[in-house]
Amino acid sequence: MEGDRLEPAVTIKNIERELICPACKELFTHPLILPCQHSICHKCVKEILFFTLEDSFTDLGSESSSQSSPRIRIHSPSLDRIDRVNRSGWKRNSLTPKTTIFPCPGCRHDVDLGERGINGLFRNFTLETIVERYRQAARAATAIMCDACKPPPQESTKSCMDCSASYCNECFKIHHPWGTVKAQHEYVGPTTNFRPKILMCPEHEMERVNMYCEICRRPVCHLCKLGGSHANHRVTTMSTAYKTLKEKLSKDIEYLISKESQVKGQISELGLLMKETECNGERAKEEASNNFDKLFEVLEERRSAALRAIEASKNLRLEKLQTQIEEYQGLLENNGLVGYAQEVLKETDQSCFVQTAKQLHVRIQKATESLKSFRPAAQTSFEDYVVDITKQEEVLGDLSFYSSGLDVPEINEEKSRMYNKALICWEHIVKEDSADTYILEYRKLNREEENATWQEIEACSKSKVISDLENNSSYAFRVRGYKGSICSPWSREVILHTPAAPVFSFLFDDKCGFNSERLMLNPRRTSVESRAGFPLLLGAERIQVGCYTTLDYIIGDTGITKGKHFWAFHVESYSYLVKVGVASNTKLQEWLHNPRDVTSPRYEQDSGHDSGSEDTCFDSSQPFTLITLGMNKFFIPKAPTAPKDSANRILPMPSCIGICLDCDRGKVGFYDADHMKCLYERQVDCSGTMYPAFALMGSAGIHLEEAITAKYLEYQDDM
């Protein structure tokens, strides 16, 4: 095949940049095509998955360790965090396949490798062939030897793609005699890269790929289309895809070749810009150095002044202490004042003695008093001379290339939320997209440790998911933008609170007691709405004194037997009456399988008169607790000691409501989930299996809070 013959060395060597693996920074070895269409060495994929998963098991939720393969040099900071590489696991339904998330070092986005993981990736044989051509051009002086010759082997002249071996002329004739099947084998120039003649499907290993999925942008076989993962995707024949892509690629190449003079002009312009950048960079370095020299001068001046003040104070204190020492030495016998007084006592002339002794006695009295109340003449401590540099350290720590043209990002508290993880969103008030990257910092607010260390994480977009936060804690967040080496000031700090317990994931149960006539579930079973239809009108027609409709119950599909759990949901503002809480499996069986008289409000278990949260059962621990929501209000249940005025028990309904069930302590709490504030708490009997319980009457809607997950890269269809 002429297309596989050796290309001129000069042409091949010019494309070296396209043949380097983004992970190991070496020539590709058995490259695999990721779903994002970037290629990476097979060994690199295995090493990245192995080391990141190993780190995640040893330190889940924390920063990944610095261990890495000596062959891999990952430069993307986004690959340093565990939650970017270990978001693999079983989904809720046990029939749902396991998927593996892989961080592409080429585009720095997470890609889904699907159920088969690395085994579901195609080898990039075209790239592999080009790399082999490059290797041969690079080692033109090194010949490929014949694999069939007896020692010493001769230089090969052909390579058989069917035999996966290289031969000299004589050996090729011997192993491929005319008139035999082997004579029909495909042969190329000497090579060490033997790729298969037919591309096989990685999901159905015995099937040849013969179609192209336009949605996933990858070759597939007919089984993939009939009942596999591409059953509902738009596919085309391989020949059509080949023709379309080849035409597009040829046109794009022709366009680039026609613009060769323009490209050369732009290269020259870029060369001038490089020189200008170098000059401006040196000038900026000089200006920065001068500014730091000014700071050094100020610091040196202040340092000298502080040292002079300390030295002067030290000398003054030493002088005072030395004087005091001399005075006390004078109190010793035959020394100083005492010795002088002893000499005065020898005076026999009375008038002369009195004249001298009066003043001497005053000095002796002062010395006696100083002995009784000894106090040093100067302090030894220099506490007043300690230089406080706390504020200066903080200012210098934030010293950077501030620019008036870079807008300060502000954290959007309405879009940011705390649930199973933290989703922090920010925006620019004045200028859109004024920064290229961002640094998000966060720290836990702890009374015991006021100055907790800020932890930082880099983001390339205006949102970031953080997964290593503690429950029932408050965190402060701030963000700054970077454009090259220039950064904006820090944004205003925003404080958010994590849930009181680990988040409990469940879906609405569409089997147990579900009333499909009056309740409507969305396909994902995360939202439920009650609707009034003909059955309700027919029921009202038979009742002349009034119609008391029943509550329609729906529960979560997963029960709780132990531990502490938290879940949140939204109740539509138009909802007339909604009850939310928890109930045991035995109580639910009673509610769902023993309907009562719909005409008696007193006998109806759902009317609130026999609710575990109402007055009749308030003091006893019941196996259920429900609170009432409706008409955009939150109703706190009555207590025996509560005031009779119901207005004190009515609160505005939070936009997001949370429930925290502590089975170990037998307590359930109802929260304003936006601010993680507990509105009501009471005892509940958790001896059975507890389920999240909901009841709707009239027009109402409930939406479960969606778990926070990292956003995956969405691929656009180019076909």
From TrEMBL:
Domain B30.2/SPRY: 486-713
Fibronectin type-III domain segment(s): 408-501
Zinc is among the record's keywords: yes
Primary localisation category: cytoplasm
GO cellular component, one term: microtubule
Domain B box-type, first and last residues per copy: 196-238
Keywords: Coiled coil, Cytoplasm, Cytoskeleton, Metal-binding, Microtubule, Repeat, Transferase, Ubl conjugation pathway, Zinc, Zinc-finger
InterPro entries for this protein: B30.2/SPRY (IPR001870), B30.2/SPRY_sf (IPR043136), Bbox_C (IPR003649), ConA-like_dom_sf (IPR013320), COS_domain (IPR017903), E3_ligase_FN3/SPRY (IPR050617), FN3_dom (IPR003961), FN3_sf (IPR036116)
Ranges for domain COS: 345-402
Keyword Metal-binding: yes
Record localization: Cytoplasm, Cytoskeleton
SMART domains from the UniProt entry: BBC (SM00502), BBOX (SM00336), RING (SM00184)
Any GO molecular function: ubiquitin-protein transferase activity
Domain of life: Eukaryota
Biological processes annotated in GO: acrosome reaction; spindle organization
Family stated for the protein in its record: Belongs to the TRIM/RBCC family.
Name of the protein this chain belongs to: Tripartite motif containing 36
Taxonomy of the source species: Eukaryota, Metazoa, Chordata, Craniata, Vertebrata
The encoding gene: TRIM36
